[in-house]
Amino acid sequence: MEYSASYNTDIGIRKSTNQDSVAVRIIDSPDGQVAFAIVCDGMGGLAKGELASKEVITAFCKWFDEDFIDEILEGSFTAARLRDEWNKIIQTENRLLGVYGSDNNIMLGTTVSAILMYKNQFYIVHVGDSRVYELKKDVRILTKDQTFVAREIEAGRMTPEEAKVDPRRSVLLQCVGASATVVPTFLKGDVLRDAVYFVCSDGFRHQISDEEIMERLGPKNVVTDDDMKYGCVYLTELVKNRKETDNITVAAIKTM
Question: What's the pLDDT tens digit per position in 86-96?
């Protein structure tokens, strides 16, 4: 499997800082190419959200650049080891950010959504309401939002239409840095060829439809790297024109 990638991040139309952080890696390995993408959305209403998202991104990138590369060169990579390492990063960052917040009398936190594609398998870690999508013949959301409204919808106490306008739609059930306990979701699956996988903050997805996503980022419409970059930027600008007030970030990877 081979990969190409693009990303776009934007402060948006209202906020004074961009509290989203994003990173993408594509490397060659003895087992073929490897792709990794991560988006962290610092909490909009909490102080120092940009610090929280950057710190978690930095920790995951350090893991990828050092530990993970060593493992694939040594042949010691396993799904169980990956899960343990990712969980350790999240628990460590949750503790460190919690201590920093307590010492400075502030609250700060971040979502985490990341996907690793290696040897035709994808691995996802997820906390909060950023998302990971798979685009093939249609739009498939791989993660579940860890929000108050998502829980209410699942319990049958709220409709999706009601959730879209509910003032509590951004209330998270957990995040890294501002939760006493964090329980990440881990997912594993087969990577589809000629598909697009993307990770985004919630600001990217609120104002656009699945049809618009497929039109600009669907695999049939993303032939070149420029196509993918254009799709990321186009959808970001579309979201801004529709008056989305949050920061907007998307990282897309096409499989070939």
Answer: 999 999 999 99
CA–CA gap between residue 71 and residue 118 (Å, rounded): 12
Tokens for 85? 């390492």
Q: Could you identify the residue written with the tokens 């952080």?
A: 21
Residues 113-137: what's their mean pLDDT? 98
One-character DSSP codes across 190-238: EPPTT-EEEEE-HHHHTT--HHHHHHHHSGGG--SHHHHHHHHHHHHHH
- Provide mean pLDDT across the span 26-39: 97
Q: Does residue 54 contact residue 109 with C-beta atoms inside 8 Å? A: no
How far is the CA of 124 from the CAs of 56, 166, 238, in angstroms? 15, 28, 28
Q: How far apart are CA 228 and CA 128, in angstroms?
A: 26
Phi, psi of 185 (to 5 degrees): -95, 135
